[in-house]
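Bench log. Compound arrived from synthesis this morning; before running ITC I wanted a structural hypothesis for how zinc ion sits in the protein. Inputs:
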Amino acid sequence: MLHHDFRRFLDTLDSLNPAQIEDAQSMIRDLGQKTEAILEIEERTNQDLKCPVCGDVRRQKWGRTRTKVQRYRCTGRQKTYSGRTGSAIGRLHRPDLFMVALRDMLGPPHRSRCVNSRGAWDLTNTRSGAGG
Ligand SMILES: [Zn+2]
């Protein structure tokens, strides 16, 4: 999924009801944080066959990275790259944390931070809400 689409996906989470959130939680657990991240990374190189650095379409499979992502070797530059190269998550050494963050967002709300929009009580947010 492209970064932009992913942001939109996150935005839609706001409109889920509690039952749907639970469904999404269990689904993500089942998917497995690491596997999902790797599949997403590889999908990128499957859709875009060009070298992310020089744009050369000539490439050959060149083993896998430590995180088990397919690696390619650019024929033009004689250098290797993977789906992570040049991507929004390319600089992360732990792409699996990408999914941990997502799972965290879907997790149950932290009680201490829970803001009651009906204004019943709001002990943690005493300094805000006075604007207007
Ligand atoms: Zn290249």
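What the model suggests: Residues 34-107 form one domain. The longest helix spans residues 33-47.
ITC booked for Thursday regardless.
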